[in-house]
Amino acid sequence: MRLQSLVWEPASRALFDAIPVQRGWRCADVGCGALGVLRALAERTGAEGEVIGYDVDETLLASARDFLATESLDPIARVEQRDLFAGELPREAFDLVHMRFMLAPIGRESELLTRALELCKPGGVFVSQEPDSASWSLLPPFGAFDRLRQIILAAFRAGGGDFDAGRRTFALLRDHGLENVSVRAAIEALPLGHPYLRVVIQFATALRKRILEHGLATAVELDALTADVEQALASRAGTTFVVTQVWGTKPAHS
Question: How far is Cα 178 from Cα 117, in angstroms, rounded to an integer?
C-alpha cells in the first residue's frame, strides 16, 4: 500500500496543481490506507490548512501515522479511523474531498459517491482517481501476465467492483450533479526490476480465495501463472494501468 501511494504520488501532485489546491484548504482523503495522498495535499495546504485521512483499517492508519511523524507533516496532516458508509464523517466540512481506488474494489458507486459528496462544502471540490486496465502490460508482452490480468479483472467483478471504473468516473461525477467536471490521465513506465511490477502478483494473492470460489481459475492454473509471471518479471519492464483523475465542483446551492 505504501509503495502504491509513492508510485502514484507524482501524478497526484500534478493533479492537485491542476485543480489547483489552495493554501489554507481543509481536505479529506477518504480510504487513505497507509499513506494515500496525505503528503501531496499537505504540501499544498500548508500549515494554514488541514488534511485528514480516513480509513477503517487501523493497521494501515498506524503505518500512515508513522510516515506523517517521520516526514514532520503532523499536525498539518493526521488520520482517523472512520467508516464512510456508517455516516461517521463530518458533513459539508471540507474544501476538497479525495478518493482513490475506492470504486474499483467496492462498487456501490451511487452510495459511495453520495456519501463522499456529503463531506464537501457547497462550492468545494470532489476528486476521484480510479484505474483503467487498458495499458497494464509487460514489455515485451507475456501471455501468462495477460491471462492473470484477465482473472484479476474478473475477480473484481465477482466481488461487486470493477477494476476499469476509471472509464466511467467522468460520467459518474456529472450524473451526481458536479459542475465543471475535468479529467486527466496518468500512466507510469516501470523499468526492469521496479517493485511495482509485482502488483499483479499481489492482486492474485489477495484475491486467491475469491478466484477459486468463483471458478475463475483452478488452484493449479493460478499457481502456474503466478510462478511464470514471477519468473518473467526478472527480465521485463512494464507499464501500469491508467489512473483516470476526475474532479468537479459541488454546486454552491446544494
Answer: 9
Nearest to 1 by CA among 38, 28, 51, 26: 38
Q: For 157-196, where are the E strands, in sequence order?
A: 179-186, 189-190
Read off φ and ψ for residue 82, nearest 5 degrees: -145, 150
Cβ neighbours of residue 141 closer than 8 Å, sequence gap 6 or more: none
pTM for the complete prediction? 0.94
Q: How far is CA 198 from CA 148, 171, 210, 221, in A?
A: 12, 31, 19, 18
Q: What are the residue ranges in the chain where pLDDT is below 70?
A: 254
How distant is the alpha carbon of residue 165 from its chain centre?
Answer: 11
Q: Among 38, 186, 36, which residue's Cα sits nearest to residue 102?
A: 36
